[in-house]
Specification:
By secondary structure, the protein is of the alpha/beta class. The protein has three domains: about 20-45 and about 290-400, Topoisomerase, domain 3; about 55-290, P-loop containing nucleotide triphosphate hydrolases (Rossmann fold, 3-Layer(aba) Sandwich); about 435-530, EF-hand (Recoverin, domain 1). Helix content is about 45%, strand content about 10%. It is built from 22 helices and ten strands. The protein has helices spanning about 5-10, 20-35, 40-45, 50-55, 70-75, 110, 125-130, 170-180, 195-205, 225-240, 265-280, 285-315, 320-330, 335-345, 355-360, 375-400, 410-415, 445-450, 460-470, 475-485, 495-510, 530, and strands spanning about 60-65, 95-100, 105-110, 135-140, 150, 180-190, 210-215, 250, 460, 495. InterPro entries: DUF5600 (IPR040990), Dynamin_N (IPR045063), EF-hand-dom_pair (IPR011992), EF_Hand_1_Ca_BS (IPR018247), EF_hand_dom (IPR002048), EH_dom (IPR000261), EHD_N (IPR031692), G_DYNAMIN_dom (IPR030381). It comes from Sinocyclocheilus anshuiensis. It is found in: Cell projection, Cilium membrane; Early endosome membrane; Recycling endosome membrane.
C-alpha cells in the first residue's frame, strides 16, 4: 500500500525530476487519499503501484480465435516465444505477457502477481481461475526492449461461448485496457463475424477508444471486390458496437511472413503495414503523455465517485429505515447523477455507467460511506489545475530528448532500408539506383514543349513557365513546390533540364505520390551536379 506524509503533501509548487517520479508522487499524495477514503477501488479500478508508472509501453491484442493474434506477435518479433501455440482452432487459452528478459522462460501467473517489478500485482483479485491462465513469456528480443505485448485467449463464438471461463473475461480485459498504450482488435477478413462475447468485450473497452486500432487480417485471401464488401461490413458492425461519431482506424493487410495468396492489393497492404508499424513505433516516445492522460482520466472519475458516495451518505437516515432508503437511492441514482452534474458543473461523460454502478452499490454498506471532505477534493483540483500543467512541460522536454527512441528490431527493421523499404524506387524515388538520369527518358518530349516557349539564352522566365505548368491543373501550392525543387541553381529561370525536371515532378504528383521536401541527388540534372558538389 502507498504511504505519504502531510509534510510532503503540502509542498507547493510540486517539483519533479522526471515524469514518472512526478506521476507517482502526485498519485500517492493527492489522488490515492481521495480514492481510499471513498472506496474507489471497490467500484472501479485497483490502486496503482510504482510498476504501473515505470513499465514499458504495452500493446494488447484482442480478437476472436484464429484471427492471427499470436502469429501477429511472431511476425513483429520474427521469433517464437515460450508458450506460443498457433492453429485454426482456439489454441491460446491463456493471457500471455510477452516481455523482455535476458533468460528465455515462462513465469506462471501466481508467481507473476507477487513480483513488485511487474505491473500485474493487482490481477491477484481475479483469483486462481484466472491466474492459472496467466503467464509471462520472457525472451531476449530487440522489439521487447521498447514494448511489451499482451496476447489474449481467442474470443469464442457460437456454442463455444456458452462454456464459462471461470473468471470475468471482460473485466480482465478492461483492467489491461486501462494500463496499456495500444489496443489492437484483430478481425479475419475471411470469416467476419462478431460474436456476443466479442461484442461485450468491445463494449467493456468503450472508455479507451483513443487507444484502439483495428486490424483486418488475412486480407490477401479474398479478391479486391470481396475486400471492399468485407471492409464495409466491418465498419458497419463496429459502428453499432462503438457508439462514437469518430471512425476507428482500420489497417488492412496480411500480417505474417508468408507469400500473399492474392497479390492484387500488395501496395495497399505494404502502405497499411507501414502505417501500423509507425503507430507502434511511436509508443515509447508518447508513453509519458499516455500515463499522464490516464491519470487525469482516473482523477476525474475519482472526483465524480467522491461526489456520488458523499451524496448517498448525506441522504441516509441515522437510525431507522436504512435498507428501504438504500433501495430507493439506488433506484433514483440517475436523478442523483443529474443533481451532481448541475451542482458541480460536471460533464455527463465523466460519470460511471449507471447500470453497473447500481449493481455495485447493491452489495455495499451505505452506513460505512464517508461524508463530504472538501480538502481531499481541493487537493485533487489543485493537482489537475496546477501540478499537471507543470508536469506537462516536463513531458514535452522528455519527448524532445527521445526523438530517436522508437521500436527497433524484428519486422520493424525489414522495411527500414534497402530496395524493399516502403515506396523505394517509386514516385520521386524512381531511378535512384540507375546510372542514367531518370528524367532523361522523357526529356525529348519535354524539349519539344520547351522550345515552343521561345527561350532566351537557353532559359525561360517564371511567368512563361507558369503558363505551361498550370495546364497540369495542380493547385498553386503544389506548383510552387515544383518550381522550388526544379529551379536547382536558384536563378529564377528554368533551362531545358530544369524544365524537364519540373514536368517529371508534376508527373510524380499526378500519379499519386508525394513530392520530396528536398530534391534527391539522383534527380539533380547532370549539368548541375558539379555545382552542388
Amino acid at each position: 500500500m502507498f504511504s505519504w506524509s502531510n509534510r510532503e503533501g503540502k509542498k507547493d509548487p510540486e517539483l519533479f525530476q522526471n515524469v514518472s517520479e512526478g506521476l507517482k508522487r502526485l498519485y500517492r499524495t493527492k489522488l490515492f487519499p481521495l480514492e481510499d477514503t471513498y472506496h474507489f477501488h471497490d467500484f472501479h479500478s485497483p490502486a496503482l503501484e510504482d510498476a504501473d508508472f515505470d513499465n514499458k509501453p504495452m500493446v494488447l491484442l484482442v480478437g476472436q480465435y484464429s484471427t492471427g493474434k499470436t502469429t501477429f506477435i511472431r511476425h513483429l518479433m520474427e521469433q517464437d516465444f515460450p508458450g506460443m501455440r498457433i492453429g485454426p482452432e482456439p489454441t491460446t487459452d491463456s493471457f500471455i505477457a510477452v516481455m523482455h528478459g535476458e533468460q528465455e522462460g515462462v513465469i506462471p501467473g501466481n508467481a507473476l502477481v507477487v513480483d513488485p517489478k511487474k505491473p500485474f500485482r493487482k490481477l491477484n483479485a481475479f483469483g486462481n481461475a484466472f491466474l492459472n491462465r496467466f503467464m509471462c513469456a520472457q525472451l531476449n528480443n530487440p522489439v521487447l526492449e521498447s514494448i511489451s505485448i499482451i496476447d489474449t485467449p481467442g474470443i469464442l463464438s457460437g456454442e463455444k461461448q456458452r462454456i464459462s471461463r471461470g473468471y470475468d473475461f471482460a473485466a480482465v480485459l478492461e483492467w489491461f485496457a486501462e494500463r496499456v498504450d495500444r489496443i489492437i482488435l484483430l478481425f479475419d477478413a475471411h470469416k467476419l463475424d462478431i460474436s456476443d462475447e466479442f461484442s461485450e468485450v468491445i463494449k467493456a473497452l468503450k472508455n479507451h477508444e483513443d487507444k484502439m486500432r483495428v486490424v483486418l487480417n488475412k486480407a490477401d485471401q479474398i479478391s479486391t471486390q470481396q475486400l471492399m464488401r468485407v471492409y464495409g461490413a466491418l465498419m458497419w458492425s463496429l459502428g453499432k458496437i462503438i457508439n462514437t461519431p469518430e471512425v476507428v482506424r482500420v489497417y488492412i493487410g496480411s500480417f505474417w511472413a508468408q507469400p500473399l495468396l492474392i497479390a492484387d492489393n500488395r501496395k495497399l497492404f505494404e502502405a497499411e503495414e507501414q502505417d501500423l508499424f509507425r503507430d507502434i513505433q511511436s509508443l515509447p516516445q508518447n508513453a509519458a503523455l499516455r500515463k499522464l492522460n490516464d491519470l487525469i482520466k482516473r482523477a476525474r472519475l475519482a472526483k465524480v465517485h467522491a461526489y456520488i458516495i458523499s451524496a448517498l451518505k448525506k441522504e441516509m437516515p441515522s437510525v431507522f429505515g436504512k435498507d428501504s432508503k438504500k433501495k430507493e437511492l439506488i433506484n433514483n441514482l440517475g436523478a442523483i447523477y443529474e443533481k451532481i452534474q448541475k451542482e458541480h458543473n460536471i460533464s455527463p461523460g465523466d460519470f460511471p455507467n449507471l447500470k453497473k454502478m447500481q449493481e455495485l452499490l447493491a452489495v455495499q454498506d451505505f452506513t460505512k460511506f464517508p461524508a463530504f471532505k472538501p480538502k481531499l477534493l481541493e487537493s485533487v483540483e489543485h493537482m489537475l489545475g496546477n501540478d499537471i500543467a507543470k508536469l506537462m512541460t516536463l513531458v514535452r522536454k522528455e519527448e524532445a530528448a527521445m526523438t530517436n527512441q522508437s521500436v527497433k528490431g524484428g519486422a520493424f527493421e525489414g522495411t527500414m532500408n534497402g530496395p524493399f523499404g516502403h515506396g523505394y524506387g517509386e514516385g520521386a524515388g524512381e531511378g535512384i539506383d540507375e546510372l542514367e538520369w531518370i528524367v532523361g527518358r522523357d526529356k525529348p518530349s519535354y524539349d519539344e514543349i520547351f522550345y515552343t516557349l521561345s527561350p532566351i539564352n537557353g532559359k525561360i522566365s517564371g511567368a512563361t513557365a507558369k503558363k505551361e505548368l498550370v495546364k497540369s491543373k495542380l493547385p498553386n501550392t503544389v506548383l510552387g513546390k515544383v518550381w522550388t525543387l526544379a529551379d536547382v541553381d536558384k536563378d529564377g529561370y528554368l533551362d531545358d533540364e530544369e524544365f524537364a525536371l519540373a514536368n517529371h515532378l508534376i508527373k510524380v504528383k499526378l500519379e499519386g505520390h508525394e513530392l520530396p521536401a528536398k530534391l534527391p541527388a539522383h534527380l539533380v540534372p547532370p549539368s548541375k551536379r558539379q555545382e552542388q558538389n
